Amino acid sequence: MRPFRQLRFEDLPEVPRVPHAWARAETSTDTVRSEAFGALRTTWRVFGEGPPLLLVHGLMTAGYSWRYVLEPLGARYRVIVPDLPGSGDTDAPDTSYHPDRLADWIGAFADHVGIRGAPTIGNSLGGYLCLRLALRDPGALGPLVDLHSPGVPLLRLHALHAAMSLPFAQGLLRRLVHRDPERWVHRNVHYYDETLKSR
């Protein structure tokens, strides 16, 4: 077995060379919606036609993180991709980012857009929040696929939640990420390893 090999940032295949369609003007299959929902202005995109499929992104990302799967999924489903509170173009909440509040927000969002019980794919923190929602309200989501999500509460996740509740923590993390957000995302979100490449 070959050992894992980490590539240099510049050599990663997903480093965008041209703007992705997400960043360009919308097409007829790509609808952007932004409206007041609860206390927050919420932004989400809808791709494709067919039965609904909800995609929920992870920590420190936005709906944009799903950009590479939208075209193939949109060929079979009406894909709904919200930006979670405080992410992307959705307003930040005045309260803390408690996982139960965020999980309830996902359920309320699904009700708001009329997709309660829809199949859902959650990545990282998004999957964790969807799992919490499913345990609290089993009818809120349909079949659930968790990608890289902790299945049970972890000490590290509790520590992160506690740290992010401190008044200065969100600003400090924001400054660290904003120094070079593209590099931070590729180091911490888009991990690529040659041994996982399809053959």
Question: In short, what is this structure?
Answer:
Helix 3 links the parallel strand 5 and strand 6 (144-147). This protein has a six-stranded mixed beta sheet. The longest helix is centred in the middle third of the chain and has 14 residues, at 99-112.
Describe this structure in words.
By secondary structure, the chain is an alpha/beta fold. It has a single domain (13-153), classed as Rossmann fold. 30% of the residues lie in helices and 17% in strands. The protein contains 6 helices and 6 strands, in the order E-E-E-H-E-H-E-H-E-H-H-H. It has a 6-stranded mixed beta sheet. Strand 3 (52-56), helix 1 and strand 4 (78-82) form a beta-alpha-beta unit. Helix 2 packs across helix 3. The longest helix has 14 residues, at 99-112. It is globular and about 45 Å long. The model is unreliable at 24-28 and 190-199 (pLDDT under 50).
How would you summarize the topology of this molecule?
Layout: E1 30-37, E2 40-47, E3 52-56, H1 70-74, E4 78-82, H2 99-112, E5 120-123, H3 125-136, E6 144-147, H4 155-164, H5 169-179, H6 181-188
Parallel strand pairs: 3-4, 3-5, 5-6
Antiparallel strand pairs: 1-2, 2-4
Helix pairs in contact: 2-3
Could you name the key traits of this structure?
single chain; 199 residues; Rossmann fold; disordered C terminus
